[in-house]
Amino acid sequence: MTIYGKDQLYISGIKKILRQLSREEENRFSSGELSIYVTSGMNIVEIYSLFFTRPPAHYSVFIAAERHFDSLTLLFPGLVKLCLPAQLRVDELSQALKVMNLLSVQNDQDGYHPRTFKFTSAEQQIMRLLLRGHSLEDIARIRGVSPTTVSVQRNGLMKRTGTKSLQELCSLYSAMRTREQSVTCN
Questions:
Q1: Rg (CA), the chain
Q2: How far apart are CA 128 and CA 131, in angstroms?
Q3: What is the pLDDT of residues 80-133, one digit of tens each?
Q4: Residue 59 in contact with residue 80, Cβ under 8 Å?
Q5: What would the 3-class secondary structure string for the chain be?
Q6: φ/ψ of residue 134, rounded to 5
Q7: What is the pLDDT of residues 42-53, one digit of tens each?
Q8: How far is CA 94 from the centre of its chain?
């Protein structure tokens, strides 16, 4: 069992619940393949950075703001995941952990291999220019296309990645680039 996040108070509560479950289940509670991500207290840049530097195990629990649930589904298709709102009761979290443990024990499968989004060269250029602070009109002028074309491409990227804002899209792209650079350096 691995727990990731920044909110140490929340994480210590989860650890306490896990110890209690281990005692109650008389060692039938094996949380080996389970990862828990606690994103409360984290901004979107930190969240995406966490997901790309510490990819989820095949069975993962995400404790996050509900507005991030769609993005998690698009980011990690095929992953057995449970998305829980940050404001949940102890008994709800305990039940969710029991369910995920049961799934991981009953369904011994190969590990999850996260799918990364592939950006075309045009999309990469748009993202690099956005990250440098260029406006849609600037990007269109640099690329020699209309602002509408750039807008359509940007909106297509947001839809495909499940991001809801330009900041979220830029954060996701930056986290992906950081991960790719660290993989190629190793």
A1: 19
A2: 5
A3: 888 899 888 888 888 888 888 777 767 655 555 555 667 888 888 898 888 888
A4: yes
A5: CEEEECCHHHHHHHHHHHHHHHHHCCCCCCCCCEEEEECCCCCHHHHHHHHHHCCCCCEEEEEECHHHHHHHHHHCCCCEEEEEECCCCHHHHHHHHHHHHHHHHHCCCCCCCCCCCCCCHHHHHHHHHHHCCCCHHHHHHHHCCCHHHHHHHHHHHHHHHCCCCHHHHHHHHHHHHHHHHHHHHC
A6: -75, 145
A7: 988 888 888 888
A8: 22
Q: How far apart are CA 2 and CA 36, in angstroms?
A: 6
Distance CA 100, CA 119 (A): 33
Taking the C-alpha atoms of residue 63 and residue 84, their distance in angstroms, rounded to an integer, is 5
Give CA–CA dist 127/138, Å, rounded: 13
Candidates 120, 119, 23, 21; CA nearest to 61 is 21
Give which of 33, 40, 1, 175 is closest to 111, Cα–Cα: 33
What per-residue confidence (pLDDT) applies to 141?
92
Put simply, whether the predicted model's pTM sits higher than 0.85 gets the answer no
